[in-house]
Amino acid sequence: MTRFADATGIVPLGEGRYRAELDEGFGFGAALNGGYLMATVMRAVVAESRHEHPVATAVNFLRPAGPGPAEIVVEQRKDGKTASMARATLVQDGKAILDAQVTTGTLDLEAVPVYCGPAPAMAPLEACQTSGRGSAERGFPARVDMRFDPAAMGWLDGRPTGRPEMRAYFRLAEHDDPDPYVLALALDALIPVVSNTGIYGWSPTVELTWHLRALPAPGWLTVHGTGRLVSDGWFDENVEIWDARGTLVAQSHQLARAARGR
Q1: Fewest CB within 10 A of the end CB: N or C in the chain?
Q2: What sequence ranges are listed for the domain Acyl-CoA thioesterase-like N-terminal HotDog (predicted)?
């Protein structure tokens, strides 16, 4: 079992309840990454479903989660032949950390898109750079391999583009083949798009909705993030993930709080 699979592993407790041991390696400081939490919760929902894949997930993040034991409570809302729906709550220290509504279905790995628009322009992998956010010896940066498009990294030198945007290649540090759980992590892995508007620092997600559009092929993922409005301490972030075949495999939309600008 890989580090990520182990870190998102769950143990059934019966009656829709699961135990999880949240891994400090997928956090920044005391707070764990939201995509990592989504992946862990999604495993519990899929374990309760007749279907294999979390095709639509909507999450409200109620408070930060820390490393250590947690419990996931899954409540079935619909058990259908094509799609099933469940509500899941991640609980830690007696407090709800996030609430999720997850729709599961079964996708075909061999499905051929009737239509798939072109991926946004991206610099070649060899021309991209690591984030520059500090040492990758600990925490989340040590668990992932991300190469950022230099055209979206001007904020590092005090030259933000002025547009909320971020682009990167993504894979796990252990080079696991991507699956829906890895996609959940990748959707929330980018440096906040508001960095390129001159707003830096922790930008906590309040709500995130994402769709699994296709099962990803092995290889690098390409992650594109953009925003439409930054105002009054809030911003939106829209993320698309494309796999090594050039297929759009995941889409997300989130609302987040903006850190204070420099």
Answers
A1: N
A2: 27-104
* Domain 1-106, CATH: 2.40.160.210
Q: At what angle do helices 180-187 and 34-48 cross, to 10 degrees?
A: 150
Q: pLDDT tens for residues 86-128? A: 999 999 999 999 999 999 999 998 888 999 888 889 999 999 9
The reply to whether the predicted model has a pTM over 0.90 is yes
Determine the Cα–Cα distance for residues 230 and 85; give it in Å rounded to an integer: 33
Q: Please check whether residue 75 is in contact with residue 86, taking contact to mean a CB–CB distance below 8 angstroms.
A: yes
> Residue with structure tokens 């899929």?
46
C-alpha pair distances (Å), 210 with each of 48, 58, 97, 176, 255: 20, 6, 18, 21, 12
**Which residue bears the tokens 């925003």?**
227
What is the identity of the amino acid at 55? Answer: V
